[in-house]
Amino acid sequence: MTGITQRLADFAAGLNHEKLPKEVMERASLLIFDLTGIMVRARHDAESTPSLIRAVERLGMQNGSCRVLGDNRGYSPTAAALINGTLAHSLDFDDTHAAASLHSSAPILPAALAAAELTSASGRDLIAACVAGYEIQVRLSLALNPSDHYDRGFHPTATCGVFGAAAAAGKLLGLDAEGIVGAFGIALSQAAGSMQFLADGAWTKRSHVGQAAANGLLCATLASEGFKGPGEAFEGIVHNVAKVRDL
Questions:
Q1: How many separate domains does the chain show?
Q2: Whole-number Å distance between alpha carbons of 158 and 154
Q3: Over the range 175-214, which residues count as b (16 or more CB within 10 Å of their CB) and which as e?
Q4: For residues 175 and 115, is the Cβ–Cβ distance under 8 A?
Q5: Which letter does DSSP use for residue 170 in this model?
């Protein structure tokens, strides 16, 4: 029997806009439009944005071909995904999947936008990639039992979002199912996000999402260049979560 990781990679790789019902395309378009507005507002109004931009500039990541919403400068692809992802969650108005206890678009769209700019992808391909990313992260969060995951101190939007971001970016970078399996495997080592920010209102709640977007893009890019990741990422998650529960 085909494993979980392979089945989800097959699903993501095989999804395209022609297979999506009209209502799904319209809903995804609305989510993209909504989050775009949120990111533009956060670029100018979120109190955490200036320090984020200064850090990116200090690291020399501000020169590139990818755009940050609400900013007329070019950034490197990873910087654009990091900034856009952080902006997406900075005002906490981003769309939410209640059952999965996560913000669906915030880690996905920024990774997809950067990948789409790198490949000159069409708008329809961007939408299909985002839908694939939504499905992956939501299914993963539901499988992990989101309330339990959250109660144990993990931020599902970040821990699950990096896999959705990897799937979305991977599709736009032209990965086949095996390539997406590899991207998932690499993302397994990037899945992180502590709820400790609740103790004092720290801004890591925001940067978690930017890091998930940037890391998802990185994982997909590494896989596209032949870098090998574990082939059973989600089986590994189930095994490791079971160990955590036994502590």
A1: 1
A2: 8
A3: bebebbbbbbbbbbebbebebebeeeeebbbbbbbbbbbb
A4: no
A5: H
Cβ atoms of 153 and 195 within 8 Å: the answer is: yes
Q: Which domain holds residue 64?
A: 4-246
Question: How many helices (H) and strands (E) would you count in the chain?
Answer: 12, 2
pLDDT in tens for each of the 247 residues of the chain? 579 999 999 999 999 999 999 999 999 999 999 999 999 999 999 999 999 999 999 999 988 999 999 999 999 999 999 999 999 999 999 999 999 999 999 999 999 999 999 999 999 999 999 999 999 999 999 998 989 998 999 999 999 999 999 999 999 999 999 999 999 999 999 999 999 999 999 999 999 999 999 999 999 999 999 999 999 999 876 555 544 444 3
Tokens of 56: 């990116």
Question: How far apart (Å, rounded) are the C-alpha atoms in residues 207 and 97?
Answer: 19
CB 153 within 8 A of CB 196: yes
CA distance 72 to 65: 11
Residue type, 53: I
Predicted pLDDT of residue 21: 97
CATH code assigned at 91: 1.10.4100.10
DSSP 206-236: HHHHHHHHHHHHHHHHHHHTT----S-HHHH
CA angle, residues 34, 38, 40, in degrees to nearest 5 = 120
